């Protein structure tokens, strides 16, 4: 069996066990207190009061970003960024970290369930994306599409564009049930649907994106609103343009979003003519061609034809790797940083010494400390089986680092691809370029400035120390000799890092959440409770406090109008 398939089946098995566990616990809860639990289950789809435009654009414009970047237009991409900034100013308190404390396992539950679902029924990825779109296009992304009809309203399920065609309700129910067991009364169905749609796209080889969370569920729904807002399969081109314009989207946006039809199936009753007419279809194609201008060699779509399974292979391997060894997410991020900081992101750090050069692996900052080479080797071997002689190790390392961060609760980002691998490496270049643990503040600022990064950039990037572990040899001097370290923290660290010996003993860089990518490192830095040496200056202190106060946290991201629970 191929390694990536084995890892996929392993994760699928974990998800099935989770479902079985959920079923057993749910029965036990219902036997203990049927009234309470049925009320809990009944309010799946309650509590949402957020305006429609920001929630709608927040998720849908991310798909547009992907389509534009695939086509390669700098102009279109910049316009999209402007549109997204307009949304960001009105999105209020939505944040990817909204549940980081109240339900830290949320995205893992969604991901595991979606992996099993898409493995058994690949079409479901498209169905959930469509369900999400049909939810957002009516009154915003508020899960109103999930509501059954009641005595007081007729919902959206049986509206013309939805009746007998929307699918995926049972998947959302399954996820919600599992989430309620672990985080009762916390997560909205609107957020679950947004995450499930994202994961469905990613599992089918599409992009992943960071989902802003904190939506509230609708308590009512309107069939007439769905009928009047959702574009029907018989809509003319002018009707389609008008429908999207009402949501703040132009014809180019509409054309890009139509690319979601690359997955899924259509019923016989909706023939190709539903796209409006031959004339309209040709016009749409022309609009799409306007987007297809070049933005240079690197592109997220670089391997879309030559190796379409690349990102799926990387993601599956990384998911299994981080599940078995969470520290590896941090190790691969460090490996990527140490690669890029020398001669660019060219995978030169992966090269072994040869008769003609001494490589970077044994440079001072790298020797006996860099990890993750075997993970890149594993991914590369599988990619070679699927797409021989196509994908560079530099691109694989960039994707693996991104996925490692995301799997530990951090952000995801779009990776431009098309790098070429180095054929040589230089140990001296690594020694002279990479900052060492002993570097002082001016040396660090100079090293980052040489790469076009200022002190604020450097401060933000240092937040990567929120994950991973450090060796005793790298922080011994700090905990024994420096004055700017919390005495209790130093004493705690000294128990595992003696003044002599034990050089390879490990300690987490973030004492509070060592396997979660968050902003706790900055808070610990201010409290002088970090293993890395603290280079103090009033400027750096201000920047550190800025990072600490502006990075997403549950306290900062919660809306002023709290949920009843």
TrEMBL record:
Domain named Plant heme peroxidase family profile: residues: 93-269, 297-529
Segment forming the signal sequence: 1-15
Domain of life: Eukaryota
GO MF assignments: heme binding; lactoperoxidase activity; metal ion binding
Cofactor(s) the protein needs: heme b; Ca(2+)
Residues bound to Ca(2+) 2: 466, 510, 513, 518
UniProt: substrate binding residues: 435
Keywords: Calcium, Disulfide bond, Glycoprotein, Heme, Hydrogen peroxide, Iron, Metal-binding, Oxidoreductase, Peroxidase, Pyrrolidone carboxylic acid, Signal
Pfam families: peroxidase
Positions bound to Ca(2+) 1: 339, 342, 344, 346, 348, 360
Paired cysteines (S-S): 307-387, 340-345, 472-497
Protein name: Peroxidase 1
